[in-house]
Specification:
By secondary structure, the chain is of the alpha+beta class. It is built from 16 helices and 13 strands.
Length: 450
């Protein structure tokens, strides 16, 4: 039936008592919607209706009623419903949401979020002392949540996270150990200084240590905390002034993490059946994840490519064999590396038992993380000039980005290429010099072809 004269084909416009114009229109489901705002001029209202009609015809329309959901509620559901997230990632997302996003933006309706609002939110985080890297993590989470709201759920017309560079982290370059330092670290994590620390009535701590030779001595200094006294005891052992015992329980752990490029969760989930000493390989099938509540979860590695078999240097096989013989049960399903009581090895227990912070400090690499052992192994592998595909397979990555970082950073591999080219040039020159022809000055000159 044709439209009556003076009537719109789509929607309607009504002038209210205030003099402003209200717009109503049928959504794709036939239900009437009211525009979220009124208009000062009828022409503006007509333009709005034309835009809405075009969005519906093109499948780009979003329901303004659905856009009234608050960001905090939507983000919580987004995290709950996101398939494939690892437990630690879920914990991280909930922490970022509660710490940085929800306090300022959690109560804002999705439809009211704007790029300016998000820019101001980020600026307030930085002004409050939040690091750029932490702000970048929070921004990337917010961007991912709103991308789903825009692209999949069609709640908002577009993602307002359009702040250039806001999601980029400027991570500091992590340290890379030399091969000698890796072996030094593997030895030092087993050092156990001999001494005792006693709290006095004054609240201070007294340190007694066994000097080299067997005599117990009292340290001349009193310490304000037990940690300070323990640090002093460690320094005495490193200086050769205090006696120490040695526990090689974690030597193979350090060597495997470095020279097989294994993550903490991967190396601590290894079972006896995963190590083939005859073939010189280690098979990565699982990884432990420690949640914020302390629960240990055994699951797949971090990525699909994480399930892999890695060749290990023959030089560390004797260390691994010694560990298996001394510390690992005979059962094929036995964990290779365990805590003192035989359960899964926790990072906190490892750090405390090995005095990791003091170890790396006295080695001259303060702030070294356990994960930097994997970083070292990846760098050493890249320095061999291996292909991108082989490097990805060893690292357990299913995308090229991380592997490319190591390849681009590998100056040594590039130097090997230059040395190889130099050998070719020198070989060609020797051949030219030995053919008996008189040198006309063109030897070694690159000639233009074509």
């Amino acid at each position: 039936m044709p439209n009556k004269d003076g009537h719109r084909r789509f929607g309607n416009i009504r002038r209210r008592e205030s003099g402003r114009y209200q717009v109503r229109y049928p959504g794709p489901d036939g239900r009437m919607r009211t525009a979220p705002e009124t208009f000062a001029r009828k022409s503006d209202a007509e333009r709005y209706l034309t835009l809405v009609e075009a969005q519906i015809l093109n499948g780009e329309w979003t329901d303004p009623d659905r856009a009234k959901i608050e960001l905090g509620d939507y983000a919580e559901k987004w995290i709950d419903q996101r398939a494939g997230l690892r437990p630690r990632t879920v914990d991280l997302y909930r922490w970022l949401l509660g710490k940085y996003i929800a306090p300022q933006l959690g109560g804002v309706q999705l439809g009211r979020l704007s790029t300016q609002m998000i820019r101001e939110w980020r600026a307030k985080l930085l002004a409050a002392g939040v690091s750029e890297n932490q702000a970048a993590k929070a921004y990337r989470l917010l961007r991912a949540v709103l991308m789903t709201a825009a692209e999949e759920d069609k709640i908002i017309p577009r993602n307002p996270c359009r702040v250039r560079g806001a999601g980029t982290e400027q991570a500091a370059e992590r340290p890379v150990l030399t091969v000698a330092q890796v072996f030094e670290l593997a030895g030092r994590v087993g050092v156990r200084p001999v001494g005792n620390i006693r709290k006095l009535d004054s609240g201070e701590y007294r340190l007694r240590y066994r000097a080299v030779g067997g005599l117990m001595r009292r340290h001349s200094e009193m310490f304000p905390t037990r940690a300070a006294a323990a640090r002093a005891l460690w320094d005495l052992a490193m200086e050769g002034k205090a006696d120490a015992t040695h526990d090689d329980r974690f030597r193979a752990l350090v060597l495997l993490a470095a020279f097989a490029s294994l993550r903490w969760g991967e190396v601590t989930a290894l079972k006896r059946r995963d190590i083939d000493l005859a073939a010189g390989t280690v098979r990565v099938r699982f990884a432990y994840t420690e949640q914020d509540n302390g629960k240990m979860l055994l699951g797949p590695p971090k990525s699909r490519a994480g399930r892999r078999t890695v060749s290990i240097p023959a030089a560390i096989i004797p260390d691994i064999k010694a560990h298996l013989d001394k510390y690992t049960k005979r059962d094929d399903a036995a964990l290779v590396f365990t805590g003192i009581k035989g359960g899964p090895l926790r990072r906190s227990g490892f750090n405390k038992l090995t005095r990791w912070v003091d170890v790396v400090r006295t080695m001259g690499v303060p702030g070294l993380h356990f994960h930097d052992l994997r970083h070292t192994g990846n760098t050493l592998a890249a320095d061999m000039g291996v292909s991108l595909r082989n490097l990805m397979a060893r690292m357990g990555h299913d995308n090229e980005r991380a592997a490319l970082i190591y390849q681009h950073a590998s100056n040594q591999a590039d130097r090997k290429i230059a040395e190889g080219l130099n050998a070719l040039v020198e070989g060609a020159r020797r051949s030219d010099d030995g053919d008996g022809d008189e040198d006309d000055g063109t030897a070694g000159v690159l000639a233009r072809i074509g």
